[in-house]
Amino acid sequence: MTGKPEIRLAAVLLLFLAGMAHAETVPAPAPECRALHVVAAKYDGPARYAHGLLWKISKPGIRPSYLFGTIHLADKEVVDLPPVVSEKLAGSRIFVMEALPQAAEAAKLSQMMIFGDQQRLDKLLSASMFKQVVDILAAYHLDEETVNKLKPWAAFITMSYPADLRPILDLQLLETAKDKGLDTRGLETLAEEGEIFNGMKLQDQLTLLKDSACYHDRFLKDFKVMKSLYLKRDLKGLYLYSQRYRFNDNHVYDSLSGRLLTRRNRTMADRIRPILREGGAFIAIGALHLTGSDGVLALLNKKNYRITRVY
Q1: 143-156 as b/e, with b when 16 or more CB fall inside 10 Å?
Q2: Measuring CA to CA, which residue among 260, 264, 294, 265 is closest to residue 46?
Q3: Rounded to whole angstroms, how far apart are CA atoms 171 and 164?
Q4: Are 210 and 125 in contact (CB under 8 A)?
Q5: Which end of the chain is less crowded, N or C, counting CB atoms within 10 A of the terminal residue's CB?
Q6: Could you tell me how far CA 44 lies from the centroid of its own chain?
Q7: Which of 141, 144, 142, 110 is CA-nearest to residue 125?
Q8: Cα 230 → chain centroid
Q9: Quick one: DSSP state of residue 33?
Q10: 249: alpha, beta or left, given left = phi > 0 and alpha = psi -120 to 50?
């Protein structure tokens, strides 16, 4: 699918919201849309992991590895790596990303993203909401017939990032690693990532899609702020900004955020540790997986790895 939505599953966090008191209400843009609240989130992570994108992970007797936080964008300011990051990648033996975009896995995920029976999206949405979804996804080079075959979660994932056809940072890192002859690996499979959404109840998938369609313009504008925070290496700021929205009935996001972020942080940390024992790895995962009390950096530190900020 256009724009490699399968690579971006892990980073759809702008809507995964914290349970805080309401501070500001955004007027619903249409009768079908729910009121959106802007809230004051709290950061509970260790202060030492609040700033930085590149981290040295070490233990005595093992060659150090490096953990790099990405943002799944193709913006030139993002993909033009600082020299120190390029140097550590070039000096590694192993490159690891969240999920390798292998053809067989991508095919499995693509099948998961579309209805396999007579179900169609226009039968699940009002005519006006379906038209809004079609209009939004036209920017992603998807025609109405294709959109109609998408499961609600797949349409939601696709529209959750800017319609930029250039390779995102993670894929550029992968290509660089391949060019340099590094052993390339994934921490998860694309099917594992897709099942986070595919296993949701249909009504919950529809909630995600309708909320995203209602506030699509607002959420895309937020990426400018997120990019700015990323370039400043402000992990705490990224975390707080990603947690700034809430709906009155927030159960879909409360549940999904635990499975998409917290649970996956633990899985990633567990799968990273054997790679660290080999030494010489460059591991690239979404920056929001690094920080917080349940972030990958804190989890690795609990396993007696020394964590040192490099950049």
Answers
A1: eeeebbbbbbbbbb
A2: 294
A3: 13
A4: yes
A5: C
A6: 20
A7: 144
A8: 13
A9: S
A10: beta
Q: Partners of 66 in the beta sheet? A: 56, 282
HSE value, Cβ hemisphere, 13 Å, CA-based, for 255: 12
Q: What are the tokens at 251?
A: 């159960």
Output DSSP code: residue 258: I
Coil, helix or strand at residue 225: helix
Q: From CA 288, how far away is CA 299, in angstroms rounded?
A: 14
pLDDT (tens digit, 9 = 90+) per residue, 214-237? 999 998 889 899 999 999 999 999
Q: pTM for the complete prediction?
A: 0.92
Amino acid residing at 152: P
Round to whole Å and give the CA distance between 282 and 275. Answer: 10
Are residues 54 and 81 in contact, defined by beta-carbon separation less than 8 angstroms?
no
Question: CA neighbours within 13 Å on the CB side: how many for 20?
Answer: 20
Is 152 within 8 Å of 120 (Cβ atoms)? no
Q: Which long-range contacts (CB under 8 A, 24 or more apart) does 136-139 make?
A: 136/213, 136/216, 139/163
Q: What distance in Å separates the CA atoms of residue 233 and residue 85, rounded to the nearest whole number?
A: 13
